[in-house]
Amino acid sequence: MRLYLINPSNPLVSIVHVKESRWNRYRVWKPLSLMVLAGLTPPEWEITIVDENLGAPDYPAMPRPDLVGITAFTAQANRAYEVAAHFRRLGVPVVMGGIHATMCLDEAMTRVDSVVTREAEGIWPQVLEDARQGRLKRRYDGGFAEISDVPLARHDLLAEGYAFGAIQTTRGCPLNCTFCSVTAFNGAHYRQRPIADVVREFQSVREKYVLVVDDNLIGTRPEHIARAKDLFRAMAQANLQKKWIAQATINFADDEELLALAAKAGCTGVFIGFESATPEGLLEVGKKFNLLKGRDFRASVRRIQRHNILVVGSFIIGLDIDEPGVGARIAEVASQYGVDNLNVLFLTPLPGTRLWDQMMSEGRIGLDAFPEDWKYYTLTFPVAGYKHLSLDGVIQEMISCNRDFYSMSRILRRVWNSLWQHRKPLFSLVGNLSYRSNLRLDCKAYADFKRYWDNRTNCVKES
Ligand code: B12
Ligand code: SF4
């Protein structure tokens, strides 16, 4: 039995872009979901993982599969349906799973043969068995997996050419920020994989650099943090020789022992969601966790960096409290905090989030011809109606934020600081130049986006 597991091309990393710039190697990340599914698949299935982001596959030239499994984030949904249509025309059954199919079940059901909602661990072997017997059901629900059932992902199945490997050590997040899908999809209950599994899986990752995909690396409670320390100890002891980056909340900065152990285990960078430059913004997105203990963000960032761990700060533009000038303000605040890189995204209502419900009820979902418009739900386009910012206004704020933060003078200052602090000036330089190289592409993308938006609005007016 032949199984294709497909990661549809991501509009942010179109094949053309990958070839356009050498920085784009750092934009292609491994589709871990498919590697996990492969780990759950019995040996009688011959598995091929196709990552469309690595290059255009010539499906007609490939042997006909018996089953196709497709994953998709919302932004990939259109391409997922195109791929599904291709295989269904050949009479090959198509199963879709992952976040988009779960949150937009009815839409997905009309375009594929079978949908698996939530996590696959508890249900995938049965789906395969049903497919083998030709009695695939229209819908399966995997629920939340027992964390010890998460198999070792098949790191051997993907081609080389990725800058980073990928691994997951925990699932879920208790914080449930309004804009984020994680709590809705993986639950508020924070689940930590058995340490021995994580270490064993790390040993099977080929790449020296690894993305730990966890949404919240260390969790929030003392017992989560104690377990994170045990994991880091075990990783250091196993002498993995890996360098890894991860996502964490700002409480990562609060425990010197934790930071020392993380660094010893190979942590070289963390992506931290600051979300807003103001306390009001944090309250709006439901992240008051960042405000606990009267936090000093600058000191927190510096504590992390002292362990030679880079900090990427993430912020959102387009909150209801955001007014003209917010872009420059974020650039200023992020510079004051001393983050090594800044990642700013437009507030985006993703299906299944609290923000989606709110914006839907207020009629503020701007681009809503689905599934076509999903391609703009990458958080890099302003798809909603923003309270105090017009379409042009919110785009201008984004451009000025990035121009300010990634001006050559600020980049050089940051690189100089990391040199002075005996950190990683080269990493800092490469990271900053990589973000800076996006600016021109971004402006072109906004111009195309505005044309698309105008055409859409005109079509609606005419009809
Ligand atoms: C790693 C990651 C990335 C990587 C992508 C790596 C990749 N190619 O997969 C990078 C950094 C590139 C990235 C980018 C983006 N991401 Co992202 N990302 C994640 C993250 C943190 C982990 C995903 C992961 O690997 N999980 C581990 C695997 C094992 O879990 P899983 O993917 O859920 O798969 C399980 C089930 O879903 C199911 N399943 C999945 N697929 C399939 C398929 C079949 C056939 C079946 C049966 C089952 C099944 O089985 C798996 C095992 O249980 C998630 C958060 C999360 N918790 O999911 C956000 C998340 C998926 N990302 C999100 C977003 C918004 C984005 C971006 C749009 C944002 C941006 N501008 O950066 C881009 C868009 C990328 C795109 N492809 O279009 C949102 C998606 C929401 C949505 N509705 O789409 C999430 C949920 C985070 C959030 N804050 O809400 N991301
Ligand atoms: S944004 Fe981060 S902290 Fe907030 S719910 Fe999502 S994963 Fe948790």
- Using DSSP, what is the number of strands? 14
Q: What are the segments in which pLDDT stays under 50 over at least 5 consecutive residues? A: none
Quick one: biggest sheet? 6 strands, parallel
* Helix amount: 40-55%
User: What is the overall silhouette?
Assistant: globular
* Terminal residue distance: 49 Å
What is the tally of helical segments?
Answer: 17
Strand content: 5-15%
SSE layout:
Blueprint: E1 2-7, H1 15-20, H2 32-40, E2 46-51, E3 67-71, H3 77-89, E4 94-97, H4 99-103, H5 105-109, E5 114-117, H6 124-132, E6 139-141, E7 165-167, E8 170-171, H7 182-186, E9 191-192, H8 195-203, E10 209-212, H9 222-237, E11 243-248, H10 256-264, E12 267-275, H11 279-284, H12 297-305, E13 310-317, H13 326-337, E14 341-346, H14 354-361, H15 391-405, H16 408-420, H17 425-462
Helix pairs in contact: 8-9, 9-10, 13-15, 15-17, 16-17
The structure holds cobalamin and iron/sulfur cluster.
Residues 173, 175-177, 180, 182-183, 215-216, 249, 273, 287 line the site of iron/sulfur cluster (SF4).
Structural write-up:
The protein has helices at residues 15-20, 32-40, 77-89, 99-103, 105-109, 124-132, 182-186, 195-203, 222-237, 256-264, 279-284, 297-305, 326-337, 354-361, 391-405, 408-420, 425-462, and strands at 2-7, 46-51, 67-71, 94-97, 114-117, 139-141, 165-167, 170-171, 191-192, 209-212, 243-248, 267-275, 310-317, 341-346. With 463 residues, the chain is an alpha/beta fold. Strands 2-1-3-4-5-6 form a 6-stranded parallel beta sheet, sandwiched between helices. The chain has a 6-stranded parallel beta sheet with strand order 7-10-11-12-13-14. It has a two-stranded antiparallel ribbon with strand order 8-9. The N and C termini lie far apart (49 Å). Bound molecules: cobalamin and iron/sulfur cluster (SF4). Residues 173, 175-177, 180, 182-183, 215-216, 249, 273, 287 line the site of iron/sulfur cluster.
